[in-house]
Amino acid sequence: MTKPVYVLNGPNLNRLGKREPEIYGHVTLAEVEALCTEAAGSVGLVFRQTNSEEQMIDWIHEAIDGSCALLINPAAFTFYSMAIMDALKMYPHPLIEFHITNVHRREPMYHNSLVSGVATAVMAGTGTRGYGYAVKLLLEMAADKVAA
């Protein structure tokens, strides 16, 4: 694989380690990026975070042609952004929707994802360590797709 894995993070994830640590833990987004970079190895990684729906859509469009796989933690965009869902529908490679917490154990407003229906797989409830697992899984999925 010559194209990198993209990891895109939605609103408020720049506050990891400070925002509700009793729910999200004390690991910072910079530490998550280091974990993902290590997991991606020689394939490479593009790691980004935005609080802007417009920016997220632009990055998804970029990833369509510029990546081998996509890990997205859409955060609040998960539950209301049809625009992000539509952009992800165009993504032709393995795509994992990721959530640090198990959204299904939380309040009902967190139970209906617009992204899940277009994702290849969904990971939730593994904490920040799950980012590394997800990147490794995406690399396997991308390799299987190339071999198919």
UniProtKB/TrEMBL annotation:
PROSITE patterns: DEHYDROQUINASE_II. The active site is at Y24, H99. GO terms for biological process: amino acid biosynthetic process; aromatic amino acid family biosynthetic process; chorismate biosynthetic process; quinate catabolic process. This is 3-dehydroquinate dehydratase. The keyword Lyase applies. It holds the Pfam family DHquinase_II. Pathway: Metabolic intermediate biosynthesis; chorismate biosynthesis; chorismate from D-erythrose 4-phosphate and phosphoenolpyruvate: step 3/7. Catalyzes a trans-dehydration via an enolate intermediate. Homododecamer. The lineage of its organism: Bacteria, Pseudomonadati, Pseudomonadota, Alphaproteobacteria, Rhodobacterales. Keywords: Amino-acid biosynthesis, Aromatic amino acid biosynthesis, Lyase. It is an enzyme of class 4 (lyase). It comes from Pseudooceanicola spongiae. Belongs to the type-II 3-dehydroquinase family. One of its GO terms (molecular function) is 3-dehydroquinate dehydratase activity. Substrate binds at N73, D86, I100, T101. The record marks R19 as: Transition state stabilizer. It catalyses: 3-dehydroquinate = 3-dehydroshikimate + H2O. InterPro entries: DHquinase_II (IPR001874), DHquinase_II_CS (IPR018509), DHquinase_II_sf (IPR036441). Its EC number is 4.2.1.10.
